[in-house]
User: Fold this.
Amino acid sequence: MSTKTILADQQKTGSGGFSWGLALSAVSGLLMLAALYMALVGAPDAVNLTSPAERAAQRIFYFHVPAAWIGFLAFIVAAGASLMYLITRRQRWDMWALASVEIGVVFFAMVMLSGPIWAKPTWNVWWTWDPRLTISTISWLLYLGYLMLRGAIDNPDRQARFGAVYALIAAISVPINWVAIRWWRTIHPAVVLPGNNSAAQGEFGMSADIRNTLLFCLFAFTVFYIMLMYHRINLENLKRRVDTLRQQILYR
Amino acid sequence: MGSLSYLAAGYAVFWIVSFVFIYSLVSRQRSLQKEVEMLEHLAAEEADRQG
Amino acid sequence: MTEQVKPLSNTATAAPAAPGGLTGYFRKVLAIVRKDVAAEIRTKEMISAMLVFSLLIILIFNFAFDLRAENINTVAPGVLWVSIAFAGMLGLSRSFILELDRGVLDGLLLTPVDRSAIYFGKMIGNVLFISVVEIILLPVFVILFNQPANILPMLAGVVLLGTIGFAGVGTLFSAMAVHTRAREVMLPIMLFPVVVPVMLSAVRLTAGILDQVPFEDVRHWGVLLVAFDAIFVAASFMLFEYVVEE
Assistant:
């Protein structure tokens, strides 16, 4: 493929127009602010909670849970894109995979940081080996492994190929990990968690209002993810164009 | 910690992480943009010289 | 590792060019295994390194945790499996490095057989090497942790299943890791999160054996371990060709 066609191809799949990116960012920003309002003010207090700190901290759940769901969504997208890349070898799929993994790292980081902050006033421990938190941590490490693997390879074709293979193995391992960790926690419930449910963080009973707020926040986060993907993929397009240009110039 | 501090800290996490990431996107974009302009300029020069 | 070992005289290519077919495939796999085994028998570097490393780990645990008689059964399974995991990691990472350095891999890739045969050959070789270490490690474990000797057969079974799990994905990953900048570090980083189910199941099963728990209670862990092995060996086998295509 001549350099000219590569550049043209990249430009086609790239920025669809300045206004789309801006519009997406604006919409996403507004939705997130709305979600913030709903979570902090709109939603009612949860019942069955004892202290005011616990009641307040419970609201972290409205952002913490969607962040985890989107993290896993990003994983699925990355796995799908990786599969498509191995089949078609089109660069665009590799860009989708890389972008999704990077964004997934970001979302899981949010989960792992907000988790302890919620846990401390609620269960009086910073870290619980709760199945969901544990699987999020492992998934985060898997993502990080993907980024490190790509970072340690110079050859771009190999980067893409190996990344894709790794992403697929990682994707298969998540459900199996989930089962294993679930069983592990069920057998040792009292060891780390002082008292109750390892499974149901929604122990505070999901009324319709709470569920609706959660769903709205999930929607806001999904749009947020799409917006980040849009910008990250554009960035990747730009980067590859730079690499191609650099090659073209230096190796004349 | 006061009853609202955990809540504040919890949400701060989301906003701080988001802004750090978005900032990294923006700054990477900026430096790549600069590099593209420079490279395209160089490529044009070279094409002129050869043409 | 810097010792230049002459590649074996064409064991890989000397086999009569069977035009594919199942026998050709198996012959190919066996050839690869035989080559690796013969090379290792000559130097014994890898196995001795793995063995010493695993014993050292058990020793370190002894000093790090106060292993007195009462609580020994709680920590014993963990100690065993950490030891196997790290020693196994060592063995896995070396297997492709040697290939690459000796330039033998290219020769293998030229032969007209499914790339996946290379995967099986390397994987079986890895399982064999790690098993040799384990054959020595397990009796040592039984002695140091004061276990009855009759647990050895069951323990060996669990250890074998765990090893297959490690080597299954480990072989695929080490083929990738060998092309990266920080080879030895890359493999553990990639592999450990993926093999968590193996660690969990193996430790639970080992604990069950040590505590003489009825099989029914830990059966699900056995199922998980076998399922993991099957799924990941299959997946690795399918994805291997994408890693070694050049």
Q: What stands out?
A: The CA atoms of residues 190 and 196 of chain A lie 8 Å apart.
